[in-house]
Design goal:
The chain is an all-alpha fold. Helix content is 49%, strand content 0%.
Length: 111
């Protein structure tokens, strides 16, 4: 019962954080320049001290999203062993049909 509650909370956190990420990223004001200016010139402030509250909020929501995704994956595969994950491969059945040139086979015969 406790595990079901944890899984439900993780799934809710996953979907809510995904929705929040989409909304927050789309509502952010574009700073221009893209990744090219992010590491030099005017865009250097993106990762520096001048990062605003919206950047911190976006990073926090991303952390929640990542944590919930990893925990969902870990709980989903918690009780499985390697043998249960790996499918068994069976050899195909070989019919007992004699080949060409063998007695009773479909060879050229003595013609």
């Amino acid at each position: 019962m406790f595990l079901i509650v944890i899984k439900t909370v993780l799934w809710l956190a996953f979907f809510l954080s995904a929705f929040l990420l989409v909304v927050v990223i789309l509502l952010q004001e574009p700073k221009g320049g893209g990744l090219g200016e992010a590491f030099g010139g005017m865009g250097a402030q993106t990762f520096g001290v001048k990062a605003g509250g919206i950047n911190k909020f976006t990073f926090t929501v991303f952390g929640l999203f990542l944590f919930s995704a990893v925990m969902i994956h870990a709980l989903r595969h918690q009780g499985e062993s390697k043998a249960a994950i790996t499918p068994k491969i069976e050899k195909p059945a070989v019919p007992n049909v004699p080949g060409p040139g063998l007695p009773g086979g479909g060879g050229s015969g003595g013609k």
